[in-house]
């Protein structure tokens, strides 16, 4: 009787005039239409995450975060295995799902966490009064390297997310996908472009520097020689060289 009232409330009085089997089939459709989409939305925006994760010791939090960042950055969302993540983190799969609900919930959390962490470092690391483009880029690199001392694969993960092609993963990061690129553009636009030689194309130079710095990081991960301080010094050497070639 209670079930009949609930179903009748949703689909109308004619529902219970059909056969019992039809009633059950209609109820199944209702469960799919009204309940399943809502669960998917919660997963996509990370609302299913258990906030008690932040009650864990910081060392354990970071171990889980770093393990997931590494696996997602190497294989992308589609090929990332939760078995690999828990193996890397040294935890049980049950614990992973207890805190994040699903692989998608973990991915969504990681992206949000990475964007917030990187944004915080950039905000505090780049002077709002700096007008030298190359000094701004140097400060941006320094801020990024401070992040990578704690989370070595965070930038690799963010870069991999830009080329993600799995629809549910894309939807999970949709709201924040341009936050960092927009912020970086604002920081670089502080620069005084009159310092450049007239023949320098700013947009092409900026893109070339990005490709160079990204390529350096990829190369250091590939040959297992990545170290934040060493990479920062190497990046600064390229920036100094390009500054000498580009400024009046």
Commentary on this structure:
This protein has 248 residues and is mainly alpha-helical. The protein has two domains: 2-44; 102-246. The protein contains twelve helices and no strands. It has helices at 2-11, 20-44, 58-79, 82-89, 93-100, 103-125, 133-150, 154-161, 167-173, 179-188, 202-222, 228-246. The radius of gyration is 24 Å and the shape is elongated. 24% of the residues are buried.
Using brief descriptors, characterize the structure shown:
248 residues; mainly alpha; 2 domains; 72% helix
Q: How many helices does DSSP assign?
A: 12
Give the helix level as a range of percent. Answer: over 70%
Radius of gyration: 24 Å
- Poorly predicted residue ranges: 1-46
What can be said about the biggest beta sheet? none
**Helix-strand sequence:** HHHHHHHHHHHH
How many structural units, i.e. domains? Answer: 2
What does the overall shape look like? elongated
| SS content category | mainly alpha
Strand percentage lies at under 5%
Mean pLDDT: 84
Report how far apart the termini are. Answer: 84 Å
What is the total tally of β strands?
0
Topology:
Layout: H1 2-11, H2 20-44, H3 58-79, H4 82-89, H5 93-100, H6 103-125, H7 133-150, H8 154-161, H9 167-173, H10 179-188, H11 202-222, H12 228-246
Helix pairs in contact: 3-4, 3-6, 3-8, 5-6, 6-7, 6-9, 6-10, 7-12, 11-12
